[in-house]
Amino acid sequence: MMDATGAPGDAAAPARTDAADTALLDVRDLRVEFRTRDGIARAVNGVSYTVAPGQTLAVLGESGSGKSVTAQAVMGILDSPPGYVTGGEIVFQGRDLLTLRGEERRKVRGAKMAMIFQDALSALNPVLSVGAQLGEMFQVHEGTSRKAARGRAVELMERVGIPAARARVGDYPHQFSGGMRQRIMIAMALALGPDLIIADEPTTALDVTVQAQVMDLLAELQRERTMGLILITHDLGVVADVADTIAVMYAGRIVETAPVHQLYRAPAHPYTRGLLDSIPRLDHKGQRLYAIKGLPPSPAAIPPGCPFHPRCPLAQDICRTDPPPPLYEAGPGRASACHFWKETLDGAR
Ligand SMILES: Nc1ncnc2c1ncn2[C@@H]1O[C@H](COP(=O)(O)OP(=O)(O)OP(=O)(O)O)[C@@H](O)[C@H]1O
Ligand code: SF4
Ligand SMILES: [Mg+2]
To answer: Which one has a higher pLDDT value, 339 or 141?
Structure first.
């Protein structure tokens, strides 16, 4: 069971939930800012979520909403300076990762959690064969001999569906298609048997059919190994079949969280409603798609009150004044950071 709780912008820490007690990962009131010459960009403003073993949390939101920065903070790969974690906890398997230093932190990152990026070509080393890169993981982390490491690299390549893996283990990244390269990156992420995978737009660069294949593979491996998966995406269509829970981000906050099918059926936040109305649907052929007016705010100038109010068709006076709406409980396992979540939910039904 996963849940995302906590009132964004609230100084008080949110109450602990049962989900948090059994969680693999429990992110609590996380805050990240970038200190640049142009000022302070508040990229993450009190994000809380939990992921249990074997569960998939999809994180959704427009460009710049803080999806990747949250993930980078969890992985411990935040670009620092200029990025700093200024508050919160990242409890992974019972330990707050923010209290770990140097080698200890690297150990967790290497073996227990792994990240898959959008662009496999820049994530893989261009001058090493894929077999050497995969094998190196076993040699360095597990002291496996070179020959045995190569054998395990072939096994992994087979598992992620690379045809003729034995013959291709000596090939270089650029010799593979985009979809195959993405499979290799998944193999790299899986190599050391992590408990948590964070996939940041893992299929965005691929064409639609290949996207579906790679997503299916990821979901299958995640089930097989009971890993937690955080799936970051722009694309609501991609997550419908694979995610258990969705957290929608806006201006560095989670504005809605819900079990995936409930969120699709009836969103409880006007922003989620706008996102849903802007995806093409087969049953609404020919209908003009809705687009949310305006642009998301810069993290250096987040509007007071509800950060979505300048774009929200339902905004009232209360929406323009601080503090921002807390995450109201909007049903079992559901929360919405909208003063008018009930009206939104009723309107969607
Ligand atoms: N290295 C950096 N230096 C300064 N600001 C940064 C840096 N990385 C991210 N930011 C700021 O943090 C905000 C959130 O960025 P993030 O990459 O998390 O967005 P995102 O939700 O992943 O968007 P996308 O869908 O485009 O990947 C951005 O608006 C950006 O201004
Ligand atoms: S709090 Fe107000 S502005 Fe924000 S989403 Fe709800 S109705 Fe819109
Ligand atoms: Mg991103």
So the answer is: 339
